[in-house]
Design a protein that fits this description.
By secondary structure, this protein is an alpha/beta fold. It folds into two domains: 35-307, Glycosidases (TIM Barrel, Alpha-Beta Barrel); 397-525, Chondroitinase Ac, Chain A, domain 3. The chain contains 15 helices and 25 strands. It has helices at 43-56, 67-70, 80-91, 114-117, 142-163, 189-195, 201-209, 216-224, 233-237, 241-264, 297-303, 319-326, 344-355, 373-382, 385-391; strands spanning 11-15, 18-23, 26-27, 30-34, 60-66, 95-105, 125-127, 133-137, 169-176, 269-274, 309-314, 334-335, 337-338, 359-360, 397-401, 409-412, 415-424, 427-433, 445-450, 455-461, 463-468, 476-488, 491-497, 509-511, 516-525. α1 runs parallel beside α3 (80-91), α5 (142-163) packs parallel to α10 and α10 packs across α11 (297-303). Bound molecules: (2R,3S,4R,5S)-2-(hydroxymethyl)piperidine-3,4,5-triol (DGJ). (2R,3S,4R,5S)-2-(hydroxymethyl)piperidine-3,4,5-triol binds next to loops.
Length: 526
């Protein structure tokens, strides 16, 4: 992670077990959305979209800035689009995360300027095992790396010049879903030469130093090949060699680009992953080989010190399992892309509550209408961001979501139900999902904060919370008072007092199909 800059520009700060994105001196949680790829290439097209983003309750928009549009001729930069996007977001009080579509976008090189695309002699392409050029530039092309780094450096310099006093741009994604498709490794001459060389000491030293914390796939691959610290890739990593080799070199390339940007303006930078393998037996190359997939995170951490976060694009149903793989002590969770259907309204409670995530952002946000339940989730969470940041990483907050990668079930007298029990604050909580899980439908999800041992904030949808005596506690636990309401700038705004039918006479906290918030105080007696 970059050192905390003295001049107060956006940065990451490690606080105990959690990591905060700090903007204007305070933790900032991204309640975001990512635009479709082409929307931000026209300021006119964007004009009506800004209003819609505001009415959705977004505080941040993730928007592409492509190499082809800022450097149409080599060395001649045009930042009018960048300036227009900054201006649009300031007028609408929304922050920006820029997505640098440089050498790669979805494992291809479709967003490079025409002068790069058409010069295959200077900007070498990756090749498949038949020696055929791919549409992607090779990550072994020194010329491409230097040209990309120059352009990205110029972009970050410009952002510093126009925004370092205002902090509209709070983070930057470097490239987009990198990796190589169609082959497990680049077979161009440049790549094959490197593949025959020894694994860099920088990687094996990292593996040795972090042996206990490595992703199990990488640890096993390295172990099976004998935990070697020297030798060519095939000998050190066996069958995993192609993917590890590509991950190291993609990460080095991206790190070089990020370093050039940080030298100009060191705000947080991250990479996003096209996930893989997505099913058993899927091979690297069938998903982008060398991209920052979960099992390659360690390689990326070793190779790319200028990258602050490795972030998953989650379109899989196993949403929570993916988050668990990416939320690690050395990698804070940020979800830059996910489904924009109604499930997103639920997922956001889980990522913030369980993982203290830096942010959440469904893809294609320009298509989302304000009747979408995400609007209600964002409105609820907007007033709670400081509270969530304050409680993250302290063991006093949980988040949950019902999805196919969620397994716990506990038995009650009527049979097996979906839900779980856990201890939080001074009590045992029993969370029961109101409906059984249905693929594609909005799942139950929530976030619960123990403000004190006996008072809780409960937010989310589709579940019923009750309290049980904890081991060695008193025999009965009941709700003392239950309120509905919401937070405005961190302050509780009181709604109805819920009792009688609305709480089964002070026995349960019920959250229906629409996102809502409750404040509850419980007590115990013998
Ligand atoms: C993932 C990419 O990163 C996005 O830019 C976009 O192309 C989406 N896929 C489309 O689903």
């Amino acid at each position: 992670m970059a050192e905390i800059p003295e001049d107060g520009i956006p940065h990451l700060r490690k606080v105990g077990r959690s990591t905060h994105l700090i903007v204007d001196g305070k933790p900032y949680i991204i309640l975001g959305g990512e635009l479709h790829n082409s929307s931000s290439s026209s300021l006119e097209y964007m004009e009506p979209i800004w209003k819609r983003l505001v009415s959705l309750g977004l505080n941040t928009v993730l928007t592409p800035v492509s190499w082809e549009l800022i450097e149409p001729e080599e060395g001649l930069f045009d930042f009018s689009l960048v300036d227009g996007l900054i201006d649009g977001s300031r007028r609408n009080r929304i922050k920006l995360v820029f997505l640098w579509f440089g050498t790669w976008k979805n494992a291809e090189s479709t967003y490079v300027p025409t002068w790069v695309k058409s010069d295959l002699e200077r900007f070498k392409r990756a090749q498949n095992p038949l020696g055929k050029n791919l549409s992607a530039i090779s990550c072994f092309s020194e010329e491409a790396r230097l040209a990309d780094a120059r352009a990205f450096g110029a972009l970050m310099r410009h952002i510093r010049e126009v925004d370092s006093g205002t902090h509209t741009v709070i983070m930057v994604q470097v490239e987009n879903e990198v990796g190589i498709l169609g082959t497990s490794r680049d077979r161009s001459y440049l790549a094959e030469t490197r593949f025959a060389q020894e694994v860099p000491a920088g990687l094996t030293e990292y593996l040795k130093a972090h042996a206990d914390d490595l992703h199990p796939y990488l640890r096993e691959a390295w172990k099976k090949a004998g935990c070697r610290v020297r030798g060519p890739w095939k000998e050190v990593f066996g069958p995993a060699a192609d993917e590890v080799f590509m991950a190291w070199h993609f990460a080095k390339y991206v790190d070089g680009v990020a370093a050039a940007g940080k030298a100009e303006y060191p705000i947080p930078m991250y990479v996003n992953a096209w996930l893989g393998p997505q099913h058993e037996g899927q091979q690297p190359g069938e998903y982008p080989s060398g991209g920052p997939v979960a099992r390659m995170i360690d390689v990326w951490l070793a190779a790319a010190p200028h990258i602050d976060l490795i972030a998953p694009d989650i379109y899989l149903d196993s949403f929570s399992a993916v988050c668990v793989e990416y939320a690690r002590p050395n990698n804070a969770l940020f979800v830059p892309e996910t489904v924009r259907d109604e499930r997103s309204a639920a997922y956001v409670f889980y990522v913030l509550g369980q993982h203290g995530a830096i942010g959440f952002s469904p893809f294609g946000i320009d298509d989302v209408v304000d009747s979408h339940p995400l609007t209600a989730s964002y409105r609820i969470l907007a007033g709670m961001t400081q509270l969530i940041a304050e409680y993250s990483g302290k063991g006093r907050m949980i988040g949950f979501v019902d999805d196919p990668s969620y397994t716990p079930a506990f038995s009650i007298s009527t049979g097996v139900m979906r839900g779980f029990e856990c201890e939080l604050g001074g009590y045992r909580l029993r969370i029961k999902f109101n409906k059984s899980f249905e693929r594609g439908k909005v799942p139950a999800a929530g976030l619960i904060i123990a403000l004190t041992d006996d008072s809780f904030i409960v937010a989310g949808l589709g579940f019923t919370l009750s309290f049980a005596p904890r081991p060695n506690g008193k025999a009965n636990v009941e709700i003392l008072k239950l309120d509905e309401g919401f937070f405005e700038n961190g302050k509780w705004v009181q709604g109805r007092r819920l009792n009688g039918d609305e709480s089964q006479n002070n026995r349960v906290v019920y959250l229906g199909d629409s996102p809502s918030v409750r404040k509850v105080k419980v007590y115990e007696y013998d």
